[in-house]
Each structure stands twice: as C-alpha cells, then as structure tokens.
Amino acid sequence: MIMLIFALFLATIITRILPAFFVGGLQFPQWLITLLNYIPYAALGVLIFPGLLTAVETPVQGILGGLFAMILAIFRVPLFFVVFGTIIFVYFLI
Questions:
Q1: At what angle do helices 59-74 and 79-93 cross, to 10 degrees?
Q2: Mind telling me which residue stretches traverse the membrane in this protein (predicted)?
Q3: Is 55 exposed, middle or buried (0-12, 13-18, 19+ CB in 10 A)?
Q4: What is the span of the domain harbouring residue 42?
Q5: Distance between CA atoms of 31 and 79, rounded to whole angstroms?
Q6: 22-79, pLDDT tens digit by residue?
Q7: Total domain count, the chain
C-alpha cells in the first residue's frame, strides 16, 4: 500500500509540478497565449453542459436555464446573482 501511494505521489509530481519549472522560462507567441486563455472557458462549458441536461426534469428546462444564465453573464451580473437568479428562473419553469 505504501508503494502504491508513493508511485501515485511521483506520478502527480512529475506531471503537475515539474512542467511548471520548465515552462516558466519560455516565451510564448501572443497568439498561443490568447488561445490558452480560452481553455478554462471551454473546459467549464464541457463540464457544465451535461449537468444542464440532467439536473432538472426535462432537458428543455436545463437549456432555458443555461440561456438565462448566459444572458445574465453577458450583462456582467455578479456570479452570485447569476446562480441565484437562474435557480429561481428554473424553479418557476417547473
């Protein structure tokens, strides 16, 4: 068991921490930096979309709730109010 924990520790160190030491000194082109800045939004969308379809009674309610949250986000409403407002919006759809 100790060997397994140690092996998993090494795998985590090698794949997560060591690249930070090597990438820190590199200069990336501006187009690559711009591309990398969009990755968190894409990953968040991939994580959220399945939940939109399965969290409520019908997928249509989830999609409408997601659209409502997007509209609030476009108007730069604070995150707390986006989440709270979307919950209330979907509640009244039911």
A1: 150
A2: 35-55, 67-93
A3: middle
A4: 2-93
A5: 29
A6: 777 778 899 998 988 888 878 888 888 898 889 888 999 999 999 999 999 999 999 9
A7: 1
Please name the residue that has the structure tokens 């690249």.
19
Rounded Cα gap, residues 81 and 84, in angstroms: 5
How far apart (Å, rounded) are the C-alpha atoms in residues 47 and 53? 12
The secondary structure of residue 76, as a DSSP letter, is T
Residue 62 exposed, middle or buried by CB count within 10 Å (0-12, 13-18, 19+): buried
Residue 15 pLDDT level (bands cut at 50, 70, 90): confident
Q: Please report the sign of the dihedral spanned by the C-alpha atoms of residue 65, residue 66, residue 67, residue 71.
A: positive
